[in-house]
User: Fold these one by one.
Assistant:
Number 1:
Amino acid sequence: MDQQQREGGQHHSRGTTGQTLRKTSNADGDIEWADPTDANITVDTISEQQLLSDSQTIVDLAVTTTYGLAVYIEGLRINQGSGADEWQPDPVIETRLTLGQSYTEGSRILCVQNEPAGSAPAPLERSKTCRTC
């Protein structure tokens, strides 16, 4: 890329549809167009465990949010949905979920955010799954 392209902002017309501009080194202006499938993105999983109370169906999360969440009760995964064996995110409070049924007092609920099998349709959508973005 030449000086005019760096200063004039003309580099935007050089890539092809779907490509992204990326740095190839720490040097100023050292950039190239690349296919985004070449990217290697790692997102940390965040988990929290709680013990359920007798008849508890509402769970308030302290560490995770419901976006991109996988929920396990006593080690068995329950899916997001409206059935008795499923869970739903609160429509307003992103740190609250509702279980479709209550479980035995003392049952362990494990909530894992950003797990590959989580509920996020697009793992990096917005800042909901990237706490440091």
Number 2:
Amino acid sequence: MNYRRAASDAGIHVYGFAAFALGAIQLVWGDFAVIWHPVQPGVPFRTPLAYVVAVCLIAAGLAVQRRGTARTGLAVLGVLYMLAACLWLPRVIGYPQIFGTWGGFNEQLIIAVAAAIGYVALESSADAREARLSGRQFLILRTTFGVCVAILGCVHFSALEQTAAMVPAWIPPGQRFWATATGGAMVLAGLSIISGVQSVLAARMFTALIGVFAVFVWLPRIQAEPRGHVAWAGTMITMAVAGAGWLVADVFGPAYGDHDPRNARTASRAPHARRNRTAG
């Protein structure tokens, strides 16, 4: 990513800020965001561990804001969010029929995968970056991200009543309509990202949906419970997911080339074409 492009690099800064804010919240309350990072009460040294993770989130979130340290920050955040995703695995394995457990797992995995995509996009060498972005590794990351987005959409349908209850009742035409519409939109966005068809638009639409969710669901909860840990942690986790979608959209976008599978060959030739034009 080119940090001189302020508009097209906003995603990585939102992603980093969400990590910083989540760490600060964890530091203030001295506890994990337990609904999303389910560290069990019996874990040895749980409270000191919560403080250590909080400091890591803060430091990595700050590191992401600077070009020279962004890859290190993304690597740390990728590991932390991947560990959080792994904490969901016992529930996924124990209760595979409950889509909510898959939703919790995918919510953390999607943030971790975005860190990996950003890490690849920040490769210092232009040739190495183009090779990675057009290679199999990147396609695996891209497909994983798309699958996670689609599963988050499916969660809306598996828990339609609970999802509808989160929609403010005053928004027309109704709570069930928006629960269904946003779930369907996320499924379509995930499929679009997987296939590589209109993936930039799909990633930005997903980001917008998560952003709207934060504004209409979590901000009112903060207003109602300004000292509530869950309200603040939920807001920052949601912002992290939105930042993940924004970061990925920036990598897919025109500023860096939309690396669809069908464009991989063109992308791999791009650096050579630029050199030839320069030489000419």
Number 3:
Amino acid sequence: KEKEEAQSLHFLKEKESIIIKQNLILEERVQERNKELLKTNEILDSQKEKIEEQISKIEKSNKELKKFNKKLSSKNSKILIKNEELQLFKKSLEETIKEKTYDLKKAKKRAIIAEKLKSSFLNNMTNEIKDPINNITGFSNLLLDKNLTEIKRNEYLNIIIHNVDKLLEQIDDIVTISRIQTGIVKLREESFDMNSIFDPLIEEFNEKLKFWDKKLKIIKRIPENIKIKADYNKLWTILHKLIGNSIKYTKSGTIELGFNKIDLNKSFQNFINLEIFIKDTGSGFETEKLNKLFIRLNEIHEDKTKIYHEIGTGLAIVKGYVDILKGNISVESKINEGTIFLIEIPVLVL
């Protein structure tokens, strides 16, 4: 037993020795491992600082990139808005250019027509001016005849005076039309009563009718003598031209000159529409010519110059003055029955 116990104790000691050795080896290995880990930790700590520094730089860069992206996005939005505005402006500009090109083409066409009309008008007016000049020259030469009787001399003198008046009127009409077309004719309002404009006109033309040997009489028909504020000279010219036109196309009968009052709304206190009429018993106009009576020079086409030549410049001046007075003019006519001219203008009653 002692021997067995000794052997067993020896075995235990050996085993213990082995365990101690193994423990020592393990401790060494643990220490070595710990050293390696400490080294690794030191390396990691060192790398961690660099990584954190890199992360900080990256984060800073990201913030800057976000700010830049925000600015870039804002600029892109502005650029898009500007592009839209430019597109709209481009479209508007193209439309304007298109309109202007169309207007220029129309203006060019009007200019060409106007040039033709100007030539036609000047040719017509030249012929109209030639007639009285030729009459004045011809009858002036006849006056040189020493054997001419007193009666014939007076007759020729009256013809010369009549043609001088006609020539002066035609020249004055040409000047007036030019002034109307250039827009330099202005309103000059003044106070006057209707008799002050009607009576001198009737007296003047009744005297002329005696010389022209026409069985014609001018009659005044007015409801009352009213005082108004308007452009006396332009209204006088309008009536003078229309009466002259009626006499031209009326061989016998009467020419009535008068007016009617047309009340306006209550808001236009003391204002009325004055409707003046000139009614004759003349030859009248064909229906197709009625709409062309008041055509102004810049509105006449070449094929209408004949009508303009037949009627003369008077009615063109009438239309121009009526427009300046902010009024309207119309005409009714029947062949062999006569013509009625109606002028409606707003006036202040005093």
